[in-house]
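Recap from last week: sequence in, structure out.
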Amino acid sequence: MAGPLRRPAFLVGTSNAGLNWPQMAEVLLFHHAQGLTPGCLAFAEDLRAAGHVVHAPDLYDGKTFTELTDGVGYAEQVGFDTILERGRLAADGLPNELVYAGFSLGVLPAQMLAQTRPGAKGALLFHACVPTSEFGGAWPRDVPVQIHMMDADELVRREGDLDAARQLAETSEDAELFLYPGDRHLFADNSLPDYDQRAATLLKQRVLSFLGALEHASAGDTVST
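Predicted structure tokens:
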């Protein structure tokens, strides 16, 4: 059964039961290497349906790819630095108090912004994670992060993402790593063959609880001040 390797400090002792949490997190969600697919858009809509504000920019200028290898090839052609810059520009004009989220390739701009743009409220890293040293050092304090992967996903094992995720979960009190049984990569995108309904549903439940906890904490801070 899937479960967290580590529970972040800010969630210890809390639950959804009996709490009327505001549902107004603002999320900047980046797509994976196959582009802004219908599955990415559906995920964004599900978060909006729960009351959250979600921005889902297209970093590929409208291009989508049926095969992951073709999408990765396009990203390599465009250049990962360009992808990161497009992600940075997507955040311009938005509040600093964002939750940054990304699927696989989209983790790069999401993690970069969470680590380097002041005011981040949290981060959601789906199917990927890079060493925090890529963006300047340790994970920022008081920025909670969830990481979601399948435990036998060959891509995250081969590319070092799983190792980076475990390192982050071990070194940050606000980091939580969820491993799901299976070997699929983009298992949360319901428009792709990798989709796993059971794992995706559990992932979404955890994401909504995470966003609700952030807003509950923000409301508490407002009351205390």
